[in-house]
Amino acid sequence: MNINAERLKSTLRELSQIGYNESDHGIYRWGFTDADMEARRWFLTLAEKEGFKCHMDGAGNVFAGIGDYHETPAVLTGSHLDTVPAGGMFDGALGVLAGLEVLRTLKENDVKLKHPVWVVGTAEEEGRFGGMMGSQALAGVVNMDWLMSAHDADGVYLKDAMAKHNLDVMDVLDAAWPPSRLKAFYELHIEQGPVLFNDEVTIGAVEGISGVFKWIVHLKGKADHAGTAPMNMRSDAFMGLADFAHEIERIIAEDGTDKTRITVGKVELKPGSPHTVPGEAIFTIVGRDMSNDVMTDLADACRKALSAIARKHRLMFEYEQVSWLKPQSCSDKLTQVIEKSAKGRNLSCIRMPSGAGHDTQFFAEITQAGLIFIPSVNGVSHAPDEWSHWHDVEAGANILLDCILNSAE
Protein backbone atom coordinates (compact mmCIF):
# COMPACT_ATOMS: atom_id res chain seq x y z
CA MET A 1 0.00 0.00 0.00
CA ASN A 2 1.31 3.46 -0.90
CA ILE A 3 0.24 7.05 -0.43
CA ASN A 4 -0.71 9.23 -3.41
CA ALA A 5 2.46 11.29 -3.88
CA GLU A 6 0.99 13.75 -6.38
CA ARG A 7 -1.96 14.48 -4.12
CA LEU A 8 0.33 15.07 -1.14
CA LYS A 9 2.49 17.37 -3.26
CA SER A 10 -0.57 19.35 -4.36
CA THR A 11 -1.84 19.71 -0.78
CA LEU A 12 1.56 20.91 0.47
CA ARG A 13 1.73 23.48 -2.31
CA GLU A 14 -1.79 24.72 -1.49
CA LEU A 15 -0.94 25.21 2.18
CA SER A 16 2.30 26.99 1.28
CA GLN A 17 0.29 29.84 -0.25
CA ILE A 18 -1.14 30.77 3.16
CA GLY A 19 1.22 33.37 4.59
CA TYR A 20 3.43 33.42 1.49
CA ASN A 21 5.36 36.66 0.94
CA GLU A 22 6.12 37.58 -2.66
CA SER A 23 9.07 39.84 -1.82
CA ASP A 24 11.30 37.32 -0.03
CA HIS A 25 9.46 34.08 -0.94
CA GLY A 26 9.18 33.19 2.75
CA ILE A 27 6.12 31.87 4.57
CA TYR A 28 4.84 33.87 7.54
CA ARG A 29 2.59 31.82 9.81
CA TRP A 30 3.97 32.88 13.21
CA GLY A 31 1.90 31.35 16.01
CA PHE A 32 -1.56 32.89 16.49
CA THR A 33 -1.20 35.40 13.68
CA ASP A 34 -3.96 35.78 11.11
CA ALA A 35 -2.13 33.56 8.61
CA ASP A 36 -1.57 30.85 11.20
CA MET A 37 -5.26 30.74 12.08
CA GLU A 38 -6.20 30.80 8.40
CA ALA A 39 -4.09 27.67 7.91
CA ARG A 40 -5.89 25.95 10.77
CA ARG A 41 -9.30 26.76 9.33
CA TRP A 42 -8.11 25.60 5.91
CA PHE A 43 -7.05 22.24 7.35
CA LEU A 44 -10.34 21.70 9.17
CA THR A 45 -12.38 22.63 6.10
CA LEU A 46 -10.36 20.27 3.90
CA ALA A 47 -10.59 17.38 6.37
CA GLU A 48 -14.32 17.83 6.87
CA LYS A 49 -14.92 18.04 3.13
CA GLU A 50 -13.13 14.71 2.68
CA GLY A 51 -15.33 13.04 5.26
CA PHE A 52 -13.09 12.90 8.32
CA LYS A 53 -14.07 13.80 11.84
CA CYS A 54 -12.40 17.06 12.84
CA HIS A 55 -12.25 19.75 15.51
CA MET A 56 -10.09 22.44 17.13
CA ASP A 57 -9.33 22.29 20.85
CA GLY A 58 -8.89 25.15 23.33
CA ALA A 59 -5.16 25.40 22.65
CA GLY A 60 -5.69 25.90 18.91
CA ASN A 61 -4.62 22.37 18.00
CA VAL A 62 -6.58 21.03 15.00
CA PHE A 63 -7.51 17.36 14.55
CA ALA A 64 -8.83 15.06 11.84
CA GLY A 65 -9.32 11.33 12.11
CA ILE A 66 -10.98 7.98 11.73
CA GLY A 67 -12.56 6.23 14.70
CA ASP A 68 -13.43 7.20 18.27
CA TYR A 69 -10.43 7.75 20.54
CA HIS A 70 -12.73 8.00 23.57
CA GLU A 71 -13.49 4.28 23.25
CA THR A 72 -10.18 2.84 22.03
CA PRO A 73 -6.65 4.30 22.36
CA ALA A 74 -5.66 6.08 19.15
CA VAL A 75 -2.56 6.13 17.02
CA LEU A 76 -1.89 9.83 16.62
CA THR A 77 0.37 11.44 14.03
CA GLY A 78 1.11 14.99 13.03
CA SER A 79 3.30 18.02 13.56
CA HIS A 80 2.73 21.79 13.51
CA LEU A 81 1.18 24.29 11.09
CA ASP A 82 2.89 27.48 12.27
CA THR A 83 6.19 28.68 10.80
CA VAL A 84 9.00 30.99 11.80
CA PRO A 85 8.92 34.35 10.02
CA ALA A 86 10.18 33.84 6.45
CA GLY A 87 10.04 30.07 6.88
CA GLY A 88 9.81 27.26 4.35
CA MET A 89 6.99 25.05 3.10
CA PHE A 90 7.99 21.71 4.65
CA ASP A 91 8.87 22.38 8.30
CA GLY A 92 5.91 21.13 10.31
CA ALA A 93 3.48 21.17 7.40
CA LEU A 94 4.93 17.94 5.99
CA GLY A 95 4.06 15.96 9.12
CA VAL A 96 0.50 17.27 9.25
CA LEU A 97 -0.32 16.80 5.58
CA ALA A 98 1.46 13.45 5.29
CA GLY A 99 -0.75 12.36 8.18
CA LEU A 100 -3.80 13.56 6.28
CA GLU A 101 -2.58 11.65 3.23
CA VAL A 102 -2.32 8.50 5.36
CA LEU A 103 -5.96 8.98 6.38
CA ARG A 104 -6.94 9.35 2.73
CA THR A 105 -5.05 6.17 1.83
CA LEU A 106 -6.66 4.17 4.64
CA LYS A 107 -10.12 5.42 3.62
CA GLU A 108 -9.61 4.70 -0.10
CA ASN A 109 -8.42 1.17 0.62
CA ASP A 110 -11.18 0.59 3.18
CA VAL A 111 -8.60 -0.51 5.75
CA LYS A 112 -10.13 -1.79 8.97
CA LEU A 113 -7.93 -1.22 12.03
CA LYS A 114 -8.34 -2.03 15.72
CA HIS A 115 -7.30 1.46 16.79
CA PRO A 116 -8.50 4.89 15.66
CA VAL A 117 -6.05 6.93 13.59
CA TRP A 118 -5.93 10.70 14.05
CA VAL A 119 -3.86 13.58 12.75
CA VAL A 120 -3.00 16.70 14.76
CA GLY A 121 -1.74 20.08 13.59
CA THR A 122 -0.29 21.48 16.79
CA ALA A 123 -0.38 25.16 17.75
CA GLU A 124 2.54 27.49 18.48
CA GLU A 125 5.35 24.95 18.04
CA GLU A 126 7.91 27.43 16.72
CA GLY A 127 8.23 29.16 20.08
CA ARG A 128 6.92 32.66 19.46
CA PHE A 129 5.87 32.63 23.11
CA GLY A 130 8.73 30.50 24.36
CA GLY A 131 7.57 26.90 24.23
CA MET A 132 5.76 24.32 22.14
CA MET A 133 2.42 25.28 23.55
CA GLY A 134 0.16 22.97 21.54
CA SER A 135 1.95 19.72 22.28
CA GLN A 136 2.72 20.84 25.84
CA ALA A 137 -1.02 21.37 26.35
CA LEU A 138 -1.83 17.91 24.97
CA ALA A 139 0.77 16.37 27.28
CA GLY A 140 -0.68 18.27 30.24
CA VAL A 141 2.55 20.07 31.14
CA VAL A 142 1.46 23.72 30.91
CA ASN A 143 0.50 25.69 34.00
CA MET A 144 -1.54 28.80 34.64
CA ASP A 145 1.40 30.98 35.69
CA TRP A 146 3.18 30.38 32.37
CA LEU A 147 0.02 30.84 30.32
CA MET A 148 -0.71 34.21 31.90
CA SER A 149 2.86 35.51 31.71
CA ALA A 150 4.04 34.10 28.36
CA HIS A 151 4.89 36.77 25.81
CA ASP A 152 6.91 37.11 22.63
CA ALA A 153 10.09 39.12 22.07
CA ASP A 154 8.00 42.17 21.11
CA GLY A 155 6.00 42.13 24.35
CA VAL A 156 2.78 40.63 22.92
CA TYR A 157 1.18 38.31 25.47
CA LEU A 158 -0.01 34.84 24.53
CA LYS A 159 -3.39 35.45 26.17
CA ASP A 160 -3.94 38.56 24.04
CA ALA A 161 -2.82 36.90 20.80
CA MET A 162 -5.27 34.05 21.45
CA ALA A 163 -8.11 36.38 22.44
CA LYS A 164 -7.75 38.16 19.10
CA HIS A 165 -8.89 34.89 17.50
CA ASN A 166 -11.66 34.19 20.02
CA LEU A 167 -9.58 31.65 21.96
CA ASP A 168 -9.47 31.78 25.76
CA VAL A 169 -6.05 31.03 27.24
CA MET A 170 -7.82 29.36 30.19
CA ASP A 171 -9.11 26.64 27.85
CA VAL A 172 -5.54 25.50 27.13
CA LEU A 173 -5.59 23.63 30.44
CA ASP A 174 -8.50 21.49 29.21
CA ALA A 175 -6.65 20.29 26.09
CA ALA A 176 -4.64 17.52 27.81
CA TRP A 177 -5.00 13.96 26.55
CA PRO A 178 -4.75 11.26 29.24
CA PRO A 179 -2.15 8.58 28.43
CA SER A 180 -4.96 6.02 28.21
CA ARG A 181 -6.27 7.80 25.10
CA LEU A 182 -3.08 7.11 23.12
CA LYS A 183 -1.44 3.94 21.82
CA ALA A 184 1.39 5.66 19.92
CA PHE A 185 2.46 8.91 18.30
CA TYR A 186 4.48 9.35 15.11
CA GLU A 187 5.87 12.52 13.59
CA LEU A 188 7.32 12.87 10.09
CA HIS A 189 9.62 15.87 9.74
CA ILE A 190 12.41 17.22 7.59
CA GLU A 191 15.80 16.86 9.27
CA GLN A 192 16.58 20.62 9.21
CA GLY A 193 20.26 19.70 9.13
CA PRO A 194 22.76 18.31 6.59
CA VAL A 195 23.46 14.76 7.81
CA LEU A 196 20.98 12.76 5.73
CA PHE A 197 21.50 14.90 2.63
CA ASN A 198 25.30 14.81 2.78
CA ASP A 199 25.41 11.06 3.47
CA GLU A 200 22.75 10.34 0.84
CA VAL A 201 20.51 8.55 3.36
CA THR A 202 16.74 8.63 2.84
CA ILE A 203 15.34 7.99 6.33
CA GLY A 204 16.46 9.06 9.78
CA ALA A 205 15.10 7.04 12.71
CA VAL A 206 15.46 9.53 15.56
CA GLU A 207 16.67 8.19 18.91
CA GLY A 208 16.31 11.34 20.96
CA ILE A 209 15.62 15.08 20.83
CA SER A 210 17.82 17.88 22.11
CA GLY A 211 16.69 20.02 24.99
CA VAL A 212 16.34 23.79 24.49
CA PHE A 213 16.46 26.81 26.75
CA LYS A 214 15.59 30.35 25.63
CA TRP A 215 16.50 33.62 27.32
CA ILE A 216 15.68 37.24 26.61
CA VAL A 217 18.67 39.30 27.81
CA HIS A 218 18.89 43.02 28.59
CA LEU A 219 22.24 44.78 28.84
CA LYS A 220 21.57 48.34 30.00
CA GLY A 221 24.15 51.11 29.81
CA LYS A 222 23.91 54.78 28.90
CA ALA A 223 23.00 56.30 25.57
CA ASP A 224 25.47 58.99 24.59
CA HIS A 225 26.64 61.13 21.68
CA ALA A 226 28.68 59.04 19.27
CA GLY A 227 31.00 61.95 18.51
CA THR A 228 31.62 63.50 21.90
CA ALA A 229 31.60 60.54 24.32
CA PRO A 230 35.22 59.27 24.77
CA MET A 231 35.64 55.57 24.06
CA ASN A 232 36.97 54.83 27.54
CA MET A 233 34.04 56.58 29.25
CA ARG A 234 31.17 54.85 27.46
CA SER A 235 28.64 52.37 28.84
CA ASP A 236 28.10 50.81 25.42
CA ALA A 237 25.52 48.02 25.50
CA PHE A 238 26.51 46.77 22.05
CA MET A 239 30.11 46.21 23.14
CA GLY A 240 28.74 43.98 25.90
CA LEU A 241 26.76 41.96 23.36
CA ALA A 242 29.78 41.72 21.06
CA ASP A 243 31.98 40.48 23.90
CA PHE A 244 29.42 37.80 24.78
CA ALA A 245 29.30 36.62 21.17
CA HIS A 246 33.06 36.01 21.37
CA GLU A 247 32.58 34.02 24.59
CA ILE A 248 30.23 31.46 23.04
CA GLU A 249 32.99 29.32 21.56
CA ARG A 250 34.82 29.19 24.90
CA ILE A 251 31.65 28.31 26.82
CA ILE A 252 30.94 25.39 24.50
CA ALA A 253 34.54 24.17 24.69
CA GLU A 254 34.57 24.25 28.49
CA ASP A 255 31.00 23.27 29.40
CA GLY A 256 29.40 21.78 26.29
CA THR A 257 29.62 18.76 24.02
CA ASP A 258 29.76 18.12 20.29
CA LYS A 259 25.95 18.30 20.40
CA THR A 260 25.88 21.76 22.02
CA ARG A 261 24.48 24.76 20.18
CA ILE A 262 24.27 28.36 21.49
CA THR A 263 22.70 31.02 19.29
CA VAL A 264 22.07 34.75 19.58
CA GLY A 265 19.17 34.99 17.15
CA LYS A 266 17.43 38.33 17.65
CA VAL A 267 19.03 41.65 18.58
CA GLU A 268 17.61 45.12 19.23
CA LEU A 269 19.71 48.17 20.04
CA LYS A 270 18.22 51.24 21.68
CA PRO A 271 17.79 54.06 20.91
CA GLY A 272 18.90 52.78 17.50
CA SER A 273 20.43 55.91 16.01
CA PRO A 274 23.62 55.85 13.88
CA HIS A 275 24.98 58.80 15.89
CA THR A 276 24.13 57.51 19.37
CA VAL A 277 26.03 55.07 21.57
CA PRO A 278 23.59 52.19 22.25
CA GLY A 279 22.25 52.51 25.76
CA GLU A 280 20.50 49.12 25.74
CA ALA A 281 20.94 45.82 23.93
CA ILE A 282 18.05 43.33 24.00
CA PHE A 283 18.78 39.93 22.54
CA THR A 284 17.82 36.26 22.69
CA ILE A 285 20.04 33.35 23.67
CA VAL A 286 18.96 29.83 22.72
CA GLY A 287 21.00 26.91 24.06
CA ARG A 288 20.65 23.23 23.11
CA ASP A 289 22.15 19.92 24.14
CA MET A 290 21.18 16.26 24.50
CA SER A 291 21.85 16.36 28.26
CA ASN A 292 19.84 18.38 30.77
CA ASP A 293 22.87 18.55 33.09
CA VAL A 294 24.98 20.00 30.29
CA MET A 295 22.23 22.53 29.54
CA THR A 296 22.34 23.60 33.19
CA ASP A 297 26.13 24.04 33.01
CA LEU A 298 25.79 26.05 29.80
CA ALA A 299 23.17 28.33 31.33
CA ASP A 300 25.39 28.92 34.37
CA ALA A 301 28.36 29.70 32.13
CA CYS A 302 26.33 32.17 30.07
CA ARG A 303 25.13 33.89 33.22
CA LYS A 304 28.67 34.20 34.65
CA ALA A 305 30.08 35.48 31.36
CA LEU A 306 27.36 38.10 31.00
CA SER A 307 27.80 39.25 34.60
CA ALA A 308 31.54 39.73 34.08
CA ILE A 309 31.01 41.52 30.76
CA ALA A 310 28.45 43.84 32.35
CA ARG A 311 30.95 44.83 35.05
CA LYS A 312 33.65 45.46 32.43
CA HIS A 313 31.46 47.78 30.38
CA ARG A 314 29.58 49.43 33.27
CA LEU A 315 26.29 47.81 32.28
CA MET A 316 23.34 46.35 34.14
CA PHE A 317 22.59 42.74 33.20
CA GLU A 318 19.08 41.25 33.39
CA TYR A 319 17.59 38.16 31.77
CA GLU A 320 14.32 36.30 31.59
CA GLN A 321 14.21 32.54 31.03
CA VAL A 322 11.35 32.21 28.58
CA SER A 323 11.43 28.43 28.37
CA TRP A 324 13.35 25.30 29.35
CA LEU A 325 12.55 22.14 27.40
CA LYS A 326 14.34 19.03 28.61
CA PRO A 327 15.92 16.52 26.22
CA GLN A 328 13.73 13.51 25.46
CA SER A 329 14.34 9.98 24.22
CA CYS A 330 12.11 8.46 21.55
CA SER A 331 10.57 5.02 21.95
CA ASP A 332 13.09 2.35 21.02
CA LYS A 333 10.23 0.08 20.00
CA LEU A 334 8.86 2.62 17.51
CA THR A 335 12.35 3.47 16.29
CA GLN A 336 12.73 -0.21 15.40
CA VAL A 337 9.37 -0.07 13.58
CA ILE A 338 10.70 2.84 11.49
CA GLU A 339 13.88 0.92 10.70
CA LYS A 340 11.94 -2.20 9.77
CA SER A 341 9.71 -0.24 7.39
CA ALA A 342 12.72 1.38 5.71
CA LYS A 343 14.36 -2.01 5.26
CA GLY A 344 11.14 -3.46 3.82
CA ARG A 345 10.99 -0.66 1.25
CA ASN A 346 14.72 -0.92 0.43
CA LEU A 347 15.39 2.60 1.72
CA SER A 348 18.64 3.60 3.41
CA CYS A 349 18.16 4.43 7.10
CA ILE A 350 20.29 5.49 10.06
CA ARG A 351 19.62 6.13 13.73
CA MET A 352 20.36 9.72 14.69
CA PRO A 353 19.69 12.44 17.28
CA SER A 354 17.67 15.58 16.62
CA GLY A 355 19.35 18.86 17.42
CA ALA A 356 16.06 20.72 16.94
CA GLY A 357 13.06 20.46 19.22
CA HIS A 358 9.91 18.75 17.99
CA ASP A 359 6.37 18.03 19.21
CA THR A 360 7.45 14.40 19.65
CA GLN A 361 9.39 15.25 22.81
CA PHE A 362 6.18 16.12 24.67
CA PHE A 363 4.12 13.24 23.31
CA ALA A 364 6.94 10.98 24.52
CA GLU A 365 5.96 11.94 28.07
CA ILE A 366 2.52 10.35 27.72
CA THR A 367 2.90 7.59 25.12
CA GLN A 368 5.32 5.71 22.90
CA ALA A 369 6.60 8.24 20.36
CA GLY A 370 8.60 7.90 17.16
CA LEU A 371 10.17 10.56 14.95
CA ILE A 372 10.96 10.06 11.24
CA PHE A 373 13.35 12.34 9.35
CA ILE A 374 13.78 12.88 5.62
CA PRO A 375 16.65 14.91 4.11
CA SER A 376 16.71 18.70 3.84
CA VAL A 377 18.60 19.83 0.74
CA ASN A 378 21.95 21.25 1.94
CA GLY A 379 20.57 21.10 5.49
CA VAL A 380 18.61 24.33 5.01
CA SER A 381 15.50 25.03 7.10
CA HIS A 382 13.72 28.01 8.69
CA ALA A 383 14.39 29.89 5.45
CA PRO A 384 12.61 30.50 2.13
CA ASP A 385 14.99 28.14 0.29
CA GLU A 386 14.16 25.21 2.60
CA TRP A 387 13.57 22.23 0.33
CA SER A 388 13.16 18.46 0.34
CA HIS A 389 13.04 16.43 -2.85
CA TRP A 390 9.61 15.07 -3.71
CA HIS A 391 10.91 11.50 -3.88
CA ASP A 392 12.09 11.85 -0.26
CA VAL A 393 8.72 13.33 0.73
CA GLU A 394 7.01 10.31 -0.84
CA ALA A 395 9.39 7.88 0.86
CA GLY A 396 8.86 9.47 4.28
CA ALA A 397 5.07 9.48 3.90
CA ASN A 398 5.10 5.78 2.97
CA ILE A 399 7.24 5.00 6.02
CA LEU A 400 4.68 6.90 8.11
CA LEU A 401 1.88 4.85 6.55
CA ASP A 402 3.69 1.60 7.38
CA CYS A 403 4.32 2.67 10.97
CA ILE A 404 0.71 3.69 11.56
CA LEU A 405 -0.54 0.40 10.11
CA ASN A 406 1.87 -1.45 12.39
CA SER A 407 0.71 0.35 15.53
CA ALA A 408 -3.02 0.52 14.72
CA GLU A 409 -3.54 -3.17 13.85
UniProtKB/TrEMBL annotation:
Cofactor(s) the record lists: Zn(2+)
Cofactor binding: number and manner: Binds 2 Zn(2+) ions per subunit.
Give the source's domain of life in one word.
Bacteria
Record-listed Zn(2+) 2 binding positions? 91, 126, 382
| Residues that coordinate or bind Zn(2+) 1 | 80, 91, 189
Q: Which Pfam families match?
A: M20_dimer, Peptidase_M20
Annotated keywords: Hydrolase, Metal-binding, Zinc
Cite the InterPro entries for this sequence: Amidase_Cbmase, Bact_exopeptidase_dim_dom, Peptidase_M20, Peptidase_M20_dimer
Domain Peptidase M20 dimerisation stretches: 210-312
Q: Which GO terms describe its molecular function?
A: hydrolase activity, acting on carbon-nitrogen (but not peptide) bonds, in linear amidines; metal ion binding
Record's signal peptide? none
State the family it belongs to.
Belongs to the peptidase M20 family.
Q: Which NCBIfam families match?
A: hydantase, PRK09290.1-5
Q: Mind telling me which PANTHER family this protein's record contains?
A: ALLANTOATE AMIDOHYDROLASE, ALLANTOATE DEIMINASE-RELATED
Q: What is this protein's name?
A: Zn-dependent hydrolase
Organism this protein belongs to: Idiomarina fontislapidosi
